[in-house]
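thoughts on both lines:
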Amino acid sequence: MRLLLPAYGLLAYFASAATATALTYKLTPNEKACFFASVDQKGAKVAFYFAVQSGGSFDVDYSVVGPNDKVILDGSKERQGDFVFTANEVGEYRFCFNNEMSTFADKMVDFEVAVENEQHAQLPSRQGTSPEQTSALEESIFKLSGQLSTITRNQKYFRTRENRNFSTVRSTERRIFNFSIVEGLMMVTMACLQVFIVRFFFQGARKGYV
């Protein structure tokens, strides 16, 4: 029980030291959308993840700009990305998505921005607890944190795959439906044209006999 209290304190510290924002945004054709994250301390780690869930070829242009308008990250026609960089300046960082390359397709973009300060908490010392036990507990918590991050990345990857496959299936169904309608209309048109041609031949033959 004595070891659980420092663990809870360390987990509570990490929850307060990191801020994260996860959003899903619908990017319309020829639209550029920017989102902002504030960094209060130099040296903070900023994690940026995005994935195009549906729309077009599942690609989008992106850019990350610092407070001094310096481009930190950029790319074009990317389907997804997972980046971590160190914020060397205090201020607002701009995360932009650009869909100007698309003229009619909407893009559904799922992204997350997390800011985490590199400060390690000191476990409170208690009577009867040796430094070795405290260090082992801290190491176990860091391992659990890394494993949870891996699980989160895998969940995001499988979610993206599922959304893209569903979008592909829905697009295929729509194309098959449209093709079936066009095929049916062509069959009706051909049938009417054949009837008209046959009637025209018979009417011409009757006039010849008269």
About this structure: The chain is about 45% helix and 35% strand. Confidence is low (pLDDT under 50) at residues 1-16. Residues 131-209 form the longest helix (79 residues). Strands lie at 18-27, 32-39, 44-54, 60-65, 71-78, 80-87, 91-98, 107-116.
